[in-house]
Amino acid sequence: MTDNKLSGLIAATYTPLHDDGELNLDPIAAMTEWLLAKGISGLYVCGSTGEGMSLSGAERRVVAEAYVKAAAGRVPVIIQVGHNSLAEARQLAAHAQEIGANYVSATCPSYFSINDVDTLIDCMAEVAGGAPELPFYYYHIPALTGSALDMAEFLERGGKRISNLAGLKYTDTKLHVFLQCLQVDPERFDVVWGCDEMMLGALATGATAAIGSTFNIAAPLYLGIMEAFRQGDMNEARRLQSLSVEMIRTIGKYPFHAAMKAVLGMNGFDIGGCRLPQGRLSESEIERLRNDLSSLGYFQWSQSSSSLSTNSL
Question: Which residues are catalytic?
Answer without folding.
Answer: 139, 169
